[in-house]
Amino acid sequence: RNQARASISSYHHSPESTESSVSARRGKSATMAAAALTLLLLVLLPAGRALATAAGDAHPGYAGAEADTCEPAPGGAPPYGGGAAGRRHGPALEEYGGGHIVDITHAYRPSMPAFAPGATVGPLVRLKASMEDGSEYNLSELRMECHMGTHVDAPGHMNQAHFAAGLDVDTLDLDVLNGPALLVDVPRHTNITAESMKSLNIPKGVRRVLFRTLNTDRGLMWKAAGDMSYVGFTEDGAQWLVDNTDIKLVGIDYISVAAFDHLISAHVAFFKNADIILVEALKLDNVKTGLYMLHCLPLRLVGSEGSPIRCILIK
């Protein structure tokens, strides 16, 4: 665009004219040509690039959201009062209602780890229209993969038959996603194998279990980089759970329920049947083990095999 303007400008100034009227007409023509060329370039720009120029990727809601990601509120106070000053994104326990409610959902921050070595999710929310820039309203846009941050896997995530059958997040059983749940600590020296599953002695009849692992101890969800050395289920651990327990909801504290070396095989074991729901990247820092009422609500994304999800525990 600048080159086009420079070319037009040089063309305008190079011919010398003795008549001022001719010079004025040429100046007007050059201005009109530059305006027309600018308009043409804007039309031809890719849609995504045009959107980026309309409003920046740095959403104002992110202001201060990264600076407080690892610190508890002063005096351990819960984030009451609202507004940016009430945010608390760190590993401190997030309690509401006098400690009755515990939020176990990670805030969706640009520095949140993505599922790739050293990667972060980057900005997820962009301001399409801004009152500060003269709009009559503020309007944000969300752009993200459906398996980022605290999220749910539907059966079609790694089972094509389930996907083709329409078993998306909109069909997930809310009765499984809400109800009594057991929070357990997994042995720290291992992935979740068949042997470690046996050692947990989870009683028959327990349908929802949240597995806290070495991932929480290492603070992996607070690192601004994906780490593929995370702990997760091995194939034999997943198969043992399917064959020997009544668990229908499996929750874990990193982006994937399956250990990296068993990424596909463990998911396949879980999803052979369509009755198991996986909830990943739960915020289990400083939550005591034991029995809670779990409430998890995904978005009703028709056709999608995954969704962001808000999960809380009721003591």
TrEMBL record:
Family: Belongs to the Cyclase 1 superfamily.
Annotated GO MF terms: arylformamidase activity
Name the UniProt record assigns to this protein: Cyclase
Location within or outside the cell: Secreted, Extracellular space, Extracellular matrix
UniProt region (Disordered), positions on chain: 1-25, 66-88
Any single GO BP term: L-tryptophan catabolic process to kynurenine
Top-level lineage group: Eukaryota
Alphabetical keyword list: Extracellular matrix, Secreted, Signal, Stress response
Keyword DNA repair annotated: no
Bias type Polar residues, positions: 1-23
Keyword Secreted: yes
InterPro entries reported for this sequence: KFase/CYL, KFase_sf
